Every structure is written in C-alpha cells, then in structure tokens.
C-alpha cells in the first residue's frame, strides 16, 4: 500500500482491550485493505505497564501508565477508550478530541451520563465519536438506529441489553430456582460479577436505555431520566405465575414515543412478555433489541451482548469507520437531538400490570377488589381465581388493560389496604403484546 | 435552516416508489433536520405520467416519462432507483452517476448481475451507491455487514431472504399442505405473485445471496456464481420428515468461507434446520439473516423483507446517509473486493444430507445401503428405520455427517441403483447445527 499508517492509542487493556489489541495485530492485513491505510498501535495505556502479558502478541514497549501523555501525542490519529467509568475516561476522551483524534468508546456509563459534552467536543474539533460497543456488545444496533433508520420514525424499542440478568432470569425460568440461587450459579460460571449490583439493580441496562432512547427519538436522554428497577425482587412465584400465563419474565429496557408523539419515556424493569414474542426466546447471556418503526415495522437484532471478542468486534467496526473518514474525508453523523422531546416521568407512562393477591376465599371479595381497580380508572383484562391449599385463602391473579403507571401504583396501594386482601404477592408489568 | 434543498429524482413509482414519495413529503421536516438540508423531489419518472394518483400528496407536474432526461438534469443531486430489473435501470443509474448524482437503489437483480460496473462508476465519479433495500427489505443487514462487521471476519451467513417462499413453507409446516396448495393460498393473500417463478425457483434469493457473499467476504460474487435450487420439489413428506426430526424446512441463502479461508461458496436451496435454531422461528413472510463472525459470534437480524413501507424505510435510511455526505463531505465505503477469493463450485461445498429411502423390509438391506455410503466416503450420523403400512416395504431415513456435495450426490445416485431400494423419496440438505 505504501501509505503511512494511522496510529491508534488504546486506553485500557482488560478483557476487551486485550482482544482489540490482538485483532489489530492478527487481522492487520485485512484491516489495512478495508481502511485503505494500515492501522498501527501507537501505545496502550494501562495501570501496570510492566505486568507480563504473554498472550498478547504486541511489543511490550507500547505499554505506558501515562494515559494523558498518550492521547496528547501528536502522532495519534485514533483513540480507543475501553477503560469504562466516568473519570478518568471523560477527561481522556475530551483531551483526545481536543488534540484532533477521533474516538471509539465502549463506555456506556460515560455516554449515558454526559454524552452531550462529548458530542459537543467532537463537533467542535471536527472529529468522530463512535460507540457501537457501548450497547449490546457485538450486536450492530447503534449504527442501524443512527443510520439505517434515519429516514424512519421509531415508535418503540424493547431491549434485553444485560446478559447477567438475562442469564439469571433464564435459569429461574428453566429450573424454578429463586433469584439468589440463580445468581450464585451465574457467579460461579462467570456470568455475574462478585459485586453484581450494576447488573441486577438495572444500572447497566439503564445507561443503555438512555443511549438507545437518545438515538431513537433525536432527544437528549441521560441515565438519570431512565426509570430503573432491577431484578432482585423477582421471585420464583413471579416466574411461575408468568409461566402459567404463557409468559416469561425478562428485564427490559423500554424506550417509547407517546401516542401523540410529543414525549418519550425510558425505563428499565422486569416485565412479563408472552412466550410468542421474539424476545422471549432470547436466553442465557444473549442480548436482543426489538425495534418498532413506523415504516420498517418490527425489527429485531440478536447476538452476544458482552465478552472480550464480541465487544472488540464492535470496537473494530467503529475503528474501521472512523479510520476510513481519516483516509477519505468526511465524518459520521454527530449528535442528533433536534426533536428535543419531553422525557416524561414514569407515572405518566402507560403500561399494564399483572397483580397476584392472597385473598380471603369468601363471597364479595372479588367485588371489593374490582371496586379498587374501578376507583382508579384501571380496567381489568382478566381475573383468575384459585383456592390455595392452606384453607380459607384464595389466589387472585388480575391482569389489567393499559393505564398510567401512577394509576396502577395507586390501585396496588388501594388493594393493600383492603381487609379481604391478606397480601399483594406479586406485581409486575406486562409488555410486548 | 435556510440552506438550499437537495434535489431527489425518483425512478419508478410502484409500491415502493409511492411510499418513498409519500415519506419524503410527510416526513420532510424530520428528514431536513437529520440531513442538515431539506430533501425535495425534483421529478418522478414513470411509464404513465398522466395516471391519477390520488393517494400520493405530490405535485402532479413532477411526473415525467423521460427518465433519462430526469437523471441528467443538472439540479438533481440524488437519484432513487426503484424500477427493478436490469435495463433500463442500469443505464439510468450509470447516467445519474456520470452526472454527479449519488444513487440509492433497491435493485437486487442489477446489483447481483453487474455490481462491479456500478461500483466502478461510483468510484470514478466520486459519488455514493447505496442499496440496503436490495436485500431483506427493511432489515438493516448490508450496512451492518459493510460497516459494523468491517473489523471482523465473517465465516458464514444463513439467510431467509425471500418472504414468499418462507410463507409457503410455513403454511406447509403448519397445515401439512403440499407445495401447490400452499402456493395458491399465498397467491390469494398477496404473498406470491401470479407468476411466482422468481421467488419459488430461488432466483430472488440467489441475487441476494450474491450481494451478501460479496460484502461478507470482500470478493466479487454474482448471481451466476450462486448454486440455486427452489422449493417447487419440496413435498409434504419432506416437511413431515423434517418435523419428525425436530426440524423445519426453510429456503436458505448460504454464504460461507471454506475452513482454510481460501474460498467461498454461495448457494440457495431448501434445507432442514433444527427447530431450536433462531431461524426456525422466522415464520410467514418475515425475513432474517443469521451471521457467524469470528469475534462477534452469532448475530441475527430479523424483520420484514418486502412491502412498500418497509422497503421505503431502507431506501430513506440510505438517502439520508448519502445526503449527509453531500452536506458534510466524504463518501460511504465503496466496493470492497480486495480478498478476491475463489468462488468454489457446489460439488466442493461441504454439507450434510437427509435421505429417505423406500426399501424392501428384509435382512441385508441396511448393510447394502450402508455400503453405498461407505464407498463414497460418506459417514452416517443416524439411521431410522420403520415398516411402512403396505406390507414388505420399510422406510429408511439416513442423516449423514458432513461431506462434499459431490460425494453426497454420488451416494444418492448409487442408492438409486440398488436392487433393494424401491425409491429415494426425499433428499434434502441439513444445516444450522
């Protein structure tokens, strides 16, 4: 080729960074042919540069602990950020762009918290900021959303975007295990971290929901805007109840346009979806994103949402794209937030509830329960009643029609106050119908 | 905005063209915001400009029967070609590019037959040629393949890319109907054309397979290179036999790299795939493309493969992309054929066969049958034998291990010559395991 190489600085060399460095080395010829110029590692910023890395076929002299010095080097054209977290990642990415480098990041937390600052910097310095790997790992979802659907109107996005929780929920569904037991299994197999908070409490999924909602609706959405409930309260009984309805419990990231098109909502919570829904068959640690757009109709994107190699695949796809812009001119699409729609609070979101009640098995109870729903303007879709084994109690399972979350919440509060209701044993939203 | 509009010439105003024109009009504000400049229809080339089109909210003066004159107009920046077929589409697209316009085409036949000429012209004139709508309608598959997976190594693509045949095969599976009956139902419901040849004989899928293989393997592949078998010979017995194995029959477009990475194959034929495979649950007229890449692992893209609005969604996504290049500079990726791998003939393709035989129910028959497989070096995975209701015959179902298609074909010929074999009742390839 004879063209001078484009120089790549890699920030972070954990599971993903190692794969990025490995692929940059082993696939160098293919990457050069696809970009039009070779890609060459300029340096790798890590905490401990001297640590032996026998599996990684790169020059040990490339490692440095001076990340700031690396991104500010004049010979760096492209920066890959796979450190994660807010700082120092943000400062490094901003310094890289200020120095004229295009950036590829896998950092969902940073993009979801402070994307606007980063996009503004990219715009100001005339560089690219790509981040396909930040959502759903290897699955191409941000580029399709940002480019393929750029001529369409997205109405709704339903995503299974966290592999750990999907693994846990799959095991609960398959074996009848409780949350704790399924989580332990996931930890033993490496599907959950020792501190699983970010995953099981829905923080990871909420960051991804914010990114997806921003792209889908051309509106700034941050992680703070996303209503978030994790899966720690999902019980074996909830899962069994879903099964009895022909449904399955999934942790969903839901981004949706209101019916009048004037506001958007973004939320993460467990929900029951029918087994016939394409997302229901997404099992174990796999991810999938279901998109409903006005002209395109229903689309689904499925694949591996995490792991070194899959995430590196997404990083390298972006790297080739931004490198091509260096070679051929132009830039990819920047932030698109022109629609600037209102992000509505959860209480105004319209959804359906599945409520299980432990009630006294006597005449008039159903009437009293139905009265509470009616008082809050919530209409009932189905009621299923069955005696419980232990004497005078019965189980009442109510699935509502669509109503605002505030009305549904108030209804549940009202039910808790009824004399005839021993307890509200399960409350879960119903989606995907 | 105040910027002058980009002028769009639309060639063809059938089902897809009508939707493109409608969306350009009704979504004009959104499109302008996303592109950075308004998009404006410069003209619509049709056969009968005077025909009333009450559903289409555009100025009747835009219609013309002079397509050549339209694409050569100096005020045309972008050309959308949704005429289909080879000529006059090719000449018009070439004239448009020669005049400096970027082109968005939905024309799978043209791309698969003569893509190289078109890409060369785009390169020569420094314009974009985008064609997402040519494969799998609304499903973003070409952009992910061409851009998202640009840093990865695709090993295999398995696609259900023809909605008509998938509808027919779904009905055969659901109802036990034969091919003819299921096709008639599809025709009655508008899922199949009066002359269904292009669909049921696999020509449509073969064009798409050529396009997918070219992108996946960075190698020129034309429709002529694709081994093609349609579904007209698929019988109710084949479908029942698949069902008995826990499988389902699908018309697959298969593009694969050989194990040594030195050659590629592209083929379209019916095949049995296990019901547990993600493609098995793609029903009715839906399409899906399953991709196996080295780093990304398994990906699947699912959605509507045809229809006016879904196809228009893909066209408009491309239109926004090429329009952004007009506004911001740069071009999208051109043809990538640097790998220039050998396209191997079908006989060298490695696959598995499912063979059903009607045999005499007597000692020694299985040995004779097994001997024929052994002579051709084909190893048997499973054999299932059951007496047929009508006396002295038995059905023998053999599923092979992987072998070259040539060896498998020769084996089937050998079986036909055996005295003990009354008939070979079904031969079908087995994929997706």
UniProtKB/TrEMBL annotation, chains A, B:
Cross-referenced CDD domains: ACT_HSDH-Hom
Active site: residue positions: 208
Cofactor(s) named in the record: a metal cation
Gene3D superfamilies in UniProt: 3.30.70.260, Dihydrodipicolinate Reductase, domain 2 (3.30.360.10), NAD(P)-binding Rossmann-like Domain (3.40.50.720)
Domain of life (superkingdom): Bacteria
Protein's pathway: Amino-acid biosynthesis; L-methionine biosynthesis via de novo pathway; L-homoserine from L-aspartate: step 3/3; Amino-acid biosynthesis; L-threonine biosynthesis; L-threonine from L-aspartate: step 3/5
Domain ACT: 354-429
Residues given in the record as NADP(+) binding sites: 11-18
Keyword Transmembrane: no
Record NCBIfam families: PRK06349.1
Name the record gives this protein: Homoserine dehydrogenase
Source organism (scientific name): Vallicoccus soli
